[in-house]
Specification:
Pfam families: Cupin_8
Structural class: alpha+beta
Protein name: Cupin-like domain-containing protein
CATH topology of the largest domain: Jelly Rolls
Radius of gyration: 25 Å
Bound molecules: 2-oxoglutaric acid
Largest sheet: 6 strands, mixed
Number of domains: 2
Organism: Parasphingorhabdus marina DSM 22363
Number of strands: 12
Number of helices: 10
CATH superfamily of the largest domain: Cupin
Strand content: 15-25%
CATH architecture of the largest domain: Sandwich
């Protein structure tokens, strides 16, 4: 028996309505949607009128309008920020910032800033190299993200890509690799690595903006040139610190979130800043920052970021600021959008 398919079958009525709701179609254009989907003018007017009386459709429509209202409010921030910063895309840089200035001008205003002079006193800045780390930690089992190239959604699937290797094997792989996004020690490997790499914290000092908790604060990052952390936003404020090598960070403000194709949790469907830039006039503003050894980037909560390793990199990130940083308690429980 051969399956019968109806050529040019028009979508069902509820499908047309669902699509119209998802796309924010105004009520006076609803009938036209049915016509475009292949319904007669008469049937289209009838279905549009019927939808207005359907409580489910009405609730969906109100919800859609609420989202549009929120987007309008966010657009106020976008326009005001653009008036303030113009077309400049560089993240401001401040050397040896005073904590009071940091919290007043950046943290509490949800504005990114690149900071220099925060960690010049750290022994790690002088000591950490492949030779030193292999010598000190070589036989230690650590966890990393492996086989990332096997899946397009490697960041979303990060729990499934956890692999255990000795630090010596990891360093050997780094030495063999010119450029790769296939393996990377990230903050998602923190539970294992905080214990395993505890001796490294001897080389880590204090940072004036953070409150020491006495528990080896910070997340360890290390990987070859070519690592890519795709667009996402964090649920906390975050300080991203470079110790060895350079990273390029592209950021997009939370008020531009409507452009971010945020389909799941904190992730975006855009695969690179270049794709976004191709939107031309429509593109949200892409803020840029290159981060070198000894430099730190304040990544404010909610800001989208995309990070590329320009060299073999070693870094750390921190969330233990001397201020409220619990933005995850009220986070959504359902995160498919
Ligand atoms: O350094 C990286 O590759 C990513 C850092 C990051 O995205 C983060 O800490 O949220």
């Amino acid at each position: 028996m051969t399956a019968k398919t109806k050529p040019n079958a028009k979508p069902g009525k509820r499908e047309v309505l669902a699509q119209a709701l998802m796309e924010g179609c105004p009520l006076d254009q609803l009938a036209a949607r049915f016509v475009a989907a292949g319904y007669s003018e008469k049937a289209a007017s009838y279905e549009a009128a019927r939808a207005m009386k359907d409580p489910l459709f009405a609730a969906g429509k109100r919800l859609g309008n609420q989202v549009k209202k929120r987007d309008w409010t966010l657009d106020i921030y976008r326009r005001l920020r653009r008036s303030e910063a113009g077309d400049a895309t560089e993240i401001p840089v401040v050397d040896t910032i005073d904590p009071e200035e940091f919290f007043a001008k950046y943290y509490h205003r949800n504005m990114p800033v690149k900071l220099t002079g925060l960690v010049d006193h750290w022994p790690a800045m002088e000591k950490w190299s492949l030779d030193f780390l292999a010598g000190k930690m070589g036989s230690t089992m650590i966890e990393l993200q492996g086989q990332r190239q096997s899946r397009a959604d490697y960041e979303i699937a990060s729990n499934e890509l956890k692999r255990n290797v000795t630090f010596a094997d990891f360093v050997a792989a780094l030495r063999r690799t010119d450029s790769s996004n296939d393996f990377y020690i990230t903050a998602n490997n923190d539970t294992v690595n905080k214990q395993a790499l505890a001796p490294l914290w001897d080389d880590v000092g204090e940072i004036s903006l953070l409150k020491p908790t006495g528990a080896n604060d910070g997340f360890f990052w290390m990987g070859p040139k070519g690592t890519i952390t795709p667009f996402h936003h964090d649920l906390t404020n975050n300080l991203l610190l470079q110790i060895v090598g350079r990273k390029r960070v592209t950021m997009i403000a939370p008020y531009d979130s409507a452009w971010m194709r945020n389909h799941k949790h904190c992730y975006s469907q855009w695969t690179s800043p270049d794709e976004l830039a191709m939107l031309g006039e429509q593109a949200p503003k892409l803020w840029e920052c290159d981060l070198g050894p000894g430099e730190a980037l304040f990544l404010p909560v909610g800001w989208w970021h995309y990070v590329v390793g320009l060299d073999l990199t070693i870094g750390m990130s921190f969330i233990n600021f001397r201020a409220d940083n619990d933005f995850y308690t009220g986070y959504l429980t359902e995160t498919d959008f």
